[in-house]
Amino acid sequence: MFQVRAKKNLGQHFLKDEAIARRIAESLDGFPTLPVLEVGPGTGMLTRHLLKQGRDLTVVEIDSESVAYLKEHYPVLNGRILEQDFLRMNLPALYNGSFCLIGNYPYNISSQIFFKLLDNRESIPCCTGMIQKEVAERMTASPGSRTYGILSVLLQTWYDIEYLFTVNEQAFIPPPKVKSAVVRLTRNKRKQLGCNEKLFKTVVKTSFNQRRKMLRNSIQSLLSEESPLPGDPMLTKRPEQLSIEQFEQLTNLLEPLIRQAEPKALKD
Question: CA 33 to CA 226: how far, in whole Å?
Answer without folding.
Answer: 56
